[in-house]
């Protein structure tokens, strides 16, 4: 049995988790999930029946991890030899920006994509304030840093970088120079290319 069972669909956030799996060199078996006919084993593991869902078949028993940010963080923790965890000096940026991507960035992009408007004067009641403020904040960081934690790639870049990369591809994030340069650095990574290649081939096969 592989170390991990990976429930995914190539047209989903499962692309983030696959990239993370490749960054740590994990041994995994994929289970492709149809949008309608969800496997019973997936529903048992995750009652939300969402992908990605990851099951770690550890020596002490099976561990279920859901939510992309959590999957990324868990894999870095479970595979310390991959050197993708933050140092003490990097930890503040690592956690700050990973959770910023999982919260304000995700909220701001979804709200904009859905056409949801925050009533004037009530920006403080939502976690992201405004779409423009979120992007300006993120841009400011990457104007001054190559990666989330400065000059070194960490697992936080898989999650934050996926938000940026996806947003640039589908137009939900504008092609500001700092974002484009950051995405270019990530796309040059071997693990990124390997993971994206698998999903691209699966997408192509499904469209035949």
Descriptive report:
By secondary structure, this protein is α+β, with helices and mostly antiparallel strands. The protein is 52% helix and 11% strand. It has 2 domains: 4-82, Glutaredoxin; 91-191, Glutathione S-transferase Yfyf (Class Pi), Chain A, domain 2. The protein has helices spanning 14-23, 40-45, 68-78, 91-114, 131-144, 155-170, 177-187, 190-206, and strands at 4-8, 28-32, 53-58, 61-66. Strands 2-1-3-4 form a 4-stranded mixed β-sheet, with helices on one face. Helix 1 (14-23) runs antiparallel to helix 6, helix 1 (14-23) packs antiparallel against helix 8 (190-206) and helix 6 (155-170) crosses helix 7 (177-187). The radius of gyration is 17 Å and the shape is globular. The two termini are 31 Å apart.
């Amino acid at each position: 049995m592989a170390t991990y069972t990976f429930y995914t669909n190539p047209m989903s956030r499962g692309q983030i988790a696959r990239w993370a799996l490749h960054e740590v060199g994990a041994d995994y078996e994929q289970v492709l999930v149809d949008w309608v006919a969800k496997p019973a084993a997936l529903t048992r593991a995750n009652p939300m029946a969402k992908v990605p869902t990851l099951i770690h078949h550890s020596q002490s028993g099976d561990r279920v991890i859901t939510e992309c940010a959590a999957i990324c963080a868990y894999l870095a923790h479970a595979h310390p030899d991959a050197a993708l965890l933050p140092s003490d000096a990097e930890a503040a940026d690592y956690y700050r920006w990973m959770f910023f991507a999982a919260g304000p960035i995700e909220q701001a992009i979804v709200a904009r994509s859905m056409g949801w408007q925050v009533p004037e004067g009530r920006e403080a009641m939502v976690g992201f304030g405004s779409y423009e403020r979120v992007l300006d904040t993120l841009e400011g960081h990457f104007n001054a840093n190559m990666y989330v934690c400065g000059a070194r790639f960490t697992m936080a870049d898989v999650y934050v970088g996926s938000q940026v990369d996806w947003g640039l591809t589908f137009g939900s994030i504008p092609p500001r120079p700092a974002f484009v340069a950051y995405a270019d650095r990530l796309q040059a990574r071997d693990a990124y290319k390997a993971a994206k290649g698998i999903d691209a081939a699966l997408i192509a096969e499904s469209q035949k």
